[in-house]
Amino acid sequence: MNFFEVLRTAVFALRGNWLRSALTSLGVIIGIAAVIVMVSVGQGTQSEIDKLVSGLGSNRLDISSGGGGRGTGGVRLSSSSFFTLTEADAEAIRNEVPEVQYVAASLRGGTQAVYAENNWSTQWQGVQPDFFDINGWTIAAGSNFEARDYGSGAKSVILGETVRRSLFGDEDAIGQTVRLGRVPYTVIGTLNPKGQGGFGQDQDDVVLVPLETGRRRMLGAMGLPNGAVMQIAVGVGRAEDVSYAQEQIEGLLRQRHKIQPGSDDDFSVRNIAEVVATRTQTTRLMSLLLGAVATISLIVGGIGIMNIMLVSVTERIREIGLRMAVGAGPGDIQRQFLAEAMLISLIGGALGIAIGIVGTLLVGRIGALPVALNGQVIALAAGFSIATGLFFGYYPARKASQLDPIEALRQQ
User: Fold this and answer.
1) Which pLDDT does position 340 carry in this prediction?
2) Which of 265, 298, 319 lies at the terminal end of a domain, its last residue?
3) Which residue positions in the chain have pLDDT lower than 50?
4) Are 82 and 224 in contact (CB under 8 A)?
5) Total domains in the fold of the chain
6) Radius of gyration of the chain (CA)
7) Of 265, 299, 322, which closes a domain?
8) What distance in Å separates the CA atoms of residue 346 and residue 115, rounded to the nearest whole number?
9) Can you say whether residue 148 is alpha, beta or left, with left for phi > 0 and alpha for psi between -120 and 50 degrees?
10) What's the pLDDT tens digit per position in 211-263?
């Protein structure tokens, strides 16, 4: 029997009991659809992590004021004592830790931005020059802050794209005056948009002012300690030096802040690479779990195929004997039953792929999970479908081919 004869015979046998064949393929349909949806979700989540890495930088350290908000003996720190970092700390890090490439101290807070009849609630950040390099910000229009702006508390502001669009629409923002709180500022530049960040926040919903401007004009009423900052962002030159640089920075700050051995730090250092690694590990575990669920579905579907094919062999023993009696060899019988199993699996796989694609698109459109559907996922699903038919169809086909023709003809 050639290939087409084997295929025609398999189709004829399945059509003879089409409802049973359809129900048998249901397990494969569910399994293949689950593989596509779950692998797409896993790849989409990994893509979000890659976006997070590109947005934050894997060579970055964030140093924040406060070591949990408590002082010695569990006594809560006062509001002014919370600002334990200073610009001098940032300069010491720049000068004494050679692995560090960029350092930028910053202050931040919320404000109401107003232009004409438009207003927008946003976040402001008082920054130093290296802030732009560390965070990957570039100027879309206008200019950056000049050196004299950082030391003089200039009333200059750079707008993120969300703020610019909300206040000015299609108008040119450069040179216009906006109010942040009650203070007027001149817009000298706008930032190129970044879109949504790795943690779901709108990165473009921000306004930037020089650090001294933020201290004097935005937080002046708080009476901050001289030179106090909320955070110091550090960019390390090489990724392999991040952990070492973190140790050096922690030791330097403990020395500068006169923290005794055994006492808690009055600052905290967050390694972005460690945060990303933790999230990557979590995503990997989630992907493995989703893959396990899909694999179980495929195994169940494959067992269903094997079960039905074994039943089919038992029901068709006399037919097998007749085929052997008229010249069909064991190989012909094996190929026939293997073709039937493969056909069930392939039809189920095709339907599963279609359902999986639709399900993935629906998850991406109405669900909260990120998805990434591509040809590799579909090829993987098709490969699973073929493997399921071969693996679970081989034993019934082998059993059918080993029947004794004389004994088979005696069956009623």
Assistant:
1) 81
2) 265
3) 68-80
4) no
5) 2
6) 34
7) 265
8) 63
9) alpha
10) 999 988 888 656 677 888 999 999 888 878 888 898 999 999 999 999 888 88
- Residue 3 is predicted with a pLDDT of 61
Half-sphere exposure of 291 (CA within 13 A, CB side): 14
The range of the structural domain enclosing residue 339 comes to: 3-52+278-410
Q: Are 155 and 213 in contact (CB under 8 A)?
A: yes
- The residue written with tokens 């039809």 in the block is 347
* Token duo for residue 293: 């669920």
Domain shared by 218 and 328, yes or no? no
> Are 100 and 47 within one domain?
no
Which tokens is 344 given?
């069930």
Q: Quickly tell me which residue has 């406060």 as its tokens.
A: 66
Q: What is the pLDDT of residue 176?
A: 94
Asked if 345 and 337 touch (Cβ cutoff 8 Å), the reply is no
Per-residue confidence (pLDDT) for residue 42, from 0 to 100: 78
Contact criterion met (CB below 8 Å) for 129 and 104: yes
The reported pLDDT for the residue numbered 68 is 47
Which residues in 138-177 are b (16+ Cβ under 10 Å) and which e?
eeebbebbeeebbeebbbbbbbbbbbbbbbbeeeebbebe
Query: Residue 73 has what pLDDT?
Result: 38
Strands (E), 89-222: 100-115, 118-127, 139-142, 156-159, 177-180, 183-191, 206-210
Amino acid identity of residue 34, one-letter, is: A
Q: Which amino acid is at 173?
A: A
Cβ neighbours of residue 36 under 8 Å, at least 6 residues apart? 352, 353, 356, 357, 359, 360, 373, 377, 378, 381
